[in-house]
TrEMBL record:
GO terms for molecular function: ATP binding; ATP hydrolysis activity. Residues 108-244 form the AAA+ ATPase domain. The chain holds residues 313 to 664 of 665 of the full protein. Keywords: ATP-binding, Nucleotide-binding. Belongs to the AAA ATPase family. It comes from the Eukaryota. This is AAA+ ATPase domain-containing protein.
Length: 352
């Protein structure tokens, strides 16, 4: 779904261009790689400086797997988090939409950290920023750089920032950023991960000082592991907490409504909210999924074949379905972890 058809103005003569990339000639590239490179060429048919000498397969990987032209998340899809939404709108969306106003004293920071328990909407916020600011979204998990791309992570990082600079405005979302910019490894640090970290910081430094419209968002569940260099570059740090009771109610209603399954009364919703204290947004989604299976399971128990089952034969989802689902879906965040986030937020977070 991420593929964008190539549009070339010069008749598709990419022979000269590709032969300059990492010493490859056109013949050695497959069609997908050629198309990716074609799309990144300027009006003169030349590949931008930053992308020359990069391996086409890495550019292709970034364009096809990491880049998302239409992340398809809007603010309205995200429950609660009003503080984060307000900060992010002012700090990053307006500057991306109006770079002419946000310059000089108003020039925005280029690095944002979203920290908090897993499953609370950090990735959704990253996508919504890109969606609202009409920016291209790049998603990479830092742990994949250190595991899947062993020895090549550095090159992939260059390709990532290179392609992003050709696709401005751009939002680069680095999940689990702590595994890349952690303070733990300083001694006995593996040479390749040290190089990867250095390359990443160089790239960040590069666009931070320039006029490029690239925003880097780092997300982490372990902010306390980030080192000082990472904190310095991620100037705005927003705590993304567990959803409030209202936000949990909204998630339940919104998910059931989407499928036309919402028939609960206010008292039922209040009970569900009371029973789900400490559940993350993602836990709530799993809970709704499990509860919505209740009517189906019951109908099948009565002997109806799944192939024969009519939608009308199923009763609406009830509070009892949620009560059963609560036995299956337990909260994934322990309450004593929350203290660590709150402490770190007090010390390093952007509180207003
Ligand atoms: P994180 O990046 O913080 O680990 P995600 O943004 O990937 O979490 O959220 C995982 C899923 O949980 C989302 O796809 C969404 O369905 C649900 N979710 C989490 N937080 C929220 C929220 N605040 N509002 C609506 N849905 C949420």
């Amino acid at each position: 779904g991420n593929f964008i058809p190539p549009i070339r103005s010069n008749g598709g003569n990419s022979g000269n261009m590709t032969s300059r990339i990492a010493g490859k000639s056109d013949d050695t590239l497959d069609d997908t790689a050629k198309r990716c490179l074609d799309m990144l060429c300027g009006p003169d048919g030349e590949l931008p400086e930053k992308l020359r000498n990069l391996e086409p397969r890495l550019i292709e990987h970034v364009s096809n797997e990491i880049m998302d032209k239409d992340p398809n998340v809007r603010w309205d899809d995200i429950a609660g988090l009003d503080h984060a939404k307000k900060c992010v709108t002012e700090m990053v969306i307006w500057p991306l939409l109006r770079p002419d106003i946000f310059r000089g004293c108003r020039s925005p920071g280029k690095g944002l950290l979203l920290f908090g328990p897993p499953g609370t909407g950090k990735t959704m916020i990253g996508k919504a920023i890109a969606g609202e600011a009409k920016a291209t979204f790049f998603y990479i998990s830092a742990s994949s750089l250190t595991s899947k791309w062993i020895g090549e992570g550095e090159k992939l990082v260059r390709a990532l920032f290179g392609v992003a600079s050709c696709r401005q405005p751009a939002v680069i979302f680095v999940d689990e950023i702590d595994s890349l910019l952690s303070q733990r490894k300083s001694e006995g640090e593996h040479e390749s991960s040290r190089r990867l970290k250095t390359q990443f910081l160089i790239e960040m430094e590069g666009f931070d000082s320039g006029s490029e419209q690239i925003l880097l968002i780092g997300a982490t569940n372990r902010p306390q592991e980030l080192d000082e260099a990472a904190r310095r570059r991620l100037t705005k740090r927003l705590y993304i907490p567990l959803p409030s009771s209202e936000a949990r109610a909204w998630i339940v209603q919104n998910l059931l409504d989407k499928d036309g399954l919402f028939k609960l009364v206010k008292e039922d919703i209040d009970t569900i909210c009371r029973l789900t204290e400490g559940y993350s947004g993602s836990d709530m989604k799993n809970l709704v999924k499990d509860a919505s299976m209740g009517p189906l399971r019951e109908a099948l128990k009565q002997g109806i074949e799944i192939t024969e089952l009519k939608k009308e034969d199923m009763r609406p989802v009830t509070l009892q379905d949620f009560e059963h689902a609560l036995q299956e879906v337990r909260p994934s965040v322990s309450l004593n972890e929350l203290g660590t986030y709150e402490e770190w937020n007090k010390q390093f977070g952007s509180l207003s």
